Amino acid sequence: MGSVADALIALHTPESERGIEESIKVNIFLQSWKTKRRDLPKDLQNLLKVSAKYGVRLEGLAFSRDILREMPIWYHIESNPIRNLNRGKESSCLKENHRVRTVGDTEKLARMKGTPRHNNRRDCRCTSCTELRSSAKCKAPNRCINRANQLLETLPQKWNPCNRLPEDFEPHESWHPGAEKERTLSDAFRIFTDGRKCNTTADMSWMSETQGETITVYTDGSCENNGGEDAVAGAGIFVRDNNPLNRAIRIPNELVQSNQTGEIISIKEIAEAAPPSTGLDILSDSLTMVEGLTRNLREWEEKGSQTSRITLNYK
């Protein structure tokens, strides 16, 4: 059913989009070409209307390379400049001879630029260019390799698999919640999105600097009007100046607003935020937390609390 819907949506494009080859129209949610909604069957009109109303789109702080490589390269939804590279001899050759359709296809071709003895000449005799002349019937492999690199360079930081990504700093791919689920493009769609997209990725290099180490962390909880109906609680985490793990946390209203809630939330947050291979020497002034996570740990775990990798010191 999905393929039929995609084909119908791609068929009813406005005059401004008529120059786009049918073979590269993959999915309107993944590419920047438009469709004439009023010419579509009623159910597809409703689908697009509801999708727009409730903000259906690809969204996430970061995506795995597998997901990035699944994206169609032509008219990539996150790259406006890529439209300017859709035409020309090299792009036509990429589509027709090399059968380039996805970001992954483009990446494989672009990496051939690093083949030993490759040079930017039509008569290049490196192994990659020689193979492309034979398998793809390409007359100028060097130009097609250059065009593949140009296409990738138009992609924002978060969408280019050639860039360093957060996953490069994660020793275990299942470290962050939901990682096991987001395997395909369909897993990366979200609803009720709003506002501007952020297409840059966070600097995760600090993670590799702390992997395998044991870091000292100071945690604390506080509460105004503790015990009162108008109590407001918070939590704090401090490693050292300007460390990304530092936190100031407002305890959500749905949780009990108390000093002890702030204490345990601060410990919970640092245990989840630190890289998996990093040991934590947590300094807390809460005797309840220290005893709860040491002497009373088994009892707490039986009630649903799970902790690991933590050494607690009472100060």
From TrEMBL:
Reactions mediated catalytically: Endonucleolytic cleavage to 5'-phosphomonoester
Gene Ontology BP term (one): DNA replication, removal of RNA primer
GO molecular function, one term: metal ion binding
Residue span, RNase H type-1 domain: 211-315
InterPro entries for the chain: RNase_H, RNaseH-like_sf, RNaseH_domain, RNaseH_sf
UniProt KW keywords: Endonuclease, Hydrolase, Metal-binding, Nuclease
A Pfam family this chain is assigned to: RNase_H
EC number(s) given by UniProt: 3.1.26.4
UniProt record similarity statement: Belongs to the RNase H family.
Protein name: ribonuclease H
Source organism (scientific name): Lentinula guzmanii
Lineage: Eukaryota, Fungi, Dikarya, Basidiomycota, Agaricomycotina
